[in-house]
Amino acid sequence: MGKTLGKALVKAAALLLAACLLGGCALEKWISAGQERPKASQGLETAGTLTEILSGLLALPENGREPADSAEEMKAVWVSYLDLSPLLVGKSREEFAASAEELVQNSKDLGMNTLIVQVRPFGDSFYPSQYFPWSKWASGEVGKPLDYDPVQILREEAEKQGLEFHGWLNPMRGMSESEISLVPPEYPIRQWYDDPALREENLMIADGNIYLNPASADARKLIADGAAEVQETYGTDGIHIDDYFYPPDMDFSVDAPSYAQYQAEGGTLDQARWRRENTLAMVRELSEAVHKASPESQFGVSPRGSMEQNFRDLYIDVEQWMREGLMDYIAPQLYYGFENGTLPFAETARQWDSLAEESGVPMVVGLAAYKVGKTDRYAGAGASEWMDSPDLLARQIEFSRELPSYGGIMFFRYDSIANPPEETADAAAQAKAYWQPLLLESTQP
At what angle do helices 150-160 and 93-109 cross, to 10 degrees? Predict the structure, then answer.
């Protein structure tokens, strides 16, 4: 979803050659014209002179990566562990390979060009990993391996059919305490859990569930190493994380020992701000690991649509992440109708667009295909909008495409559009009749 540095340099060289062939070129002036770095959001628009064009081509944002090419629209679908598990548990390699081919073909037929595939949902893995145990959602039991690699199969099928493949992981969320005894002893999460001192340092346990502690340098390294492993093993087009960070309502007592250690070392932030610094450090290290493993790959973040909830409940300062250029795209979950009483779609999308345009980070709009045909119980006056307006998703796509920072759309989730439940199947089919042509009409041959 963005030009590589190599492409830009090739174009720059071509322009230099053309200018010299035309005669009268002053290369010193051309080079000096490229010293002032434009905002990433200015892109590489055609300027009035060759000097201006070359200046745009040579300029790079401070993070060393190029701004995304707004002409390339991401049309993506989240493929969650809930979509994958029925295709895997108890199934042979041949059965899964057939299902993978069908999944990719269905996505392509719907107009998608990108799969966002969940490869690590609960501190576990859908592939043979040196860092995380096999997921029960893949094999039927935590730590029990499959005799084939479903991620490799799906990755190869996506490449065969011309779709991009992004590995989606949940960096902090782990399994339940009742499942940890099934994890083989060679994995860090089991070793940390079994040792009281390491457990206190590297893990957080709330309501019987385990989370990796982003205050721990070792935990952050494990998260980053796991992301790099996916990149290096499968050559994926990117790594994607969603909105699971600190769980909402996690009491401050849960990570009090880590906070006390921070204070003992001279830290002065209150615990809420300290948590946001921890997630910032984690995302920095994730971004660095992804781009070190594969400089041309993308790192994308999909936070909640409510900026207030992100900051207050999940302890993430997405605005700061964007200002620092830590991601290659932002995919806010704008799971609201136009008539939503609290967060109306248009207003919320414009807020995110303003932030995205200012920071130069393209926005991929997350859309709630799973709500079609259902009552939206938190929408107030717009509670029935997803039942009454079959063209809602289509109108959201059209609206999003007019936003200056627009980089694409992302549907949650695969089964909601390809295999909707019986009670919403008719509504999903009606909605698809509106939105599918919009995706297909922009598909390049």
Answer: 40
Non-local CB neighbours of 305 within 8 Å, separated by 6+ positions: 332, 333, 334, 335, 336, 343, 348, 352, 366
CA distance 265 to 212: 21
Which residue in 443, 409, 413 sits closest to 103, CA to CA?
A: 413
CA distance 116 to 33: 40
Please give the Cα distance from 146 to 153 (Å, whole number). 13
Distance from C-alpha of 325 to C-alpha of 427, rounded to nearest angstrom: 39
Task: Judge contact between 370 and 327, C-beta under 8 A.
Answer: no
One-letter identity of residue 7: K
**Cis bond leading into 190, ω under 30°?**
no
The model carries a pTM of 0.84
The one-letter code for the residue type at 248 is P
Report the C-alpha gap between 313 and 325 in whole angstroms: 23
Q: Are 438 and 398 in contact (CB under 8 A)?
A: yes
Count of all residues that appear for the chain in the document: 445
Q: Please check whether residue 59 is in contact with residue 38, taking contact to mean a CB–CB distance below 8 angstroms.
A: yes
Cβ contact 133:183 at 8 Å: yes
DSSP of 25-40, one letter per residue?
--HHHHHHHTSSPPPG
CA 30 remoteness from chain centre: 38
| DSSP class of 68 | B
- Which residue has tokens 């717009």? 382
pLDDT tens for the 445 residues of the chain, in order? 433 333 333 333 433 333 333 344 333 332 333 333 333 333 333 334 443 333 333 334 444 434 334 358 999 999 999 999 999 999 999 999 999 999 999 999 999 999 999 999 999 999 999 999 999 999 999 999 999 999 999 999 999 999 999 999 999 999 999 999 999 999 999 999 999 999 999 999 999 999 999 999 999 999 999 999 999 999 999 999 999 999 999 999 999 999 999 999 999 999 999 999 999 999 999 999 999 999 999 999 999 999 999 999 999 999 999 999 999 999 999 999 999 999 999 999 999 999 999 999 999 999 999 999 999 999 999 999 999 999 999 999 999 999 999 999 999 999 999 999 999 999 999 999 999 999 998 764 5
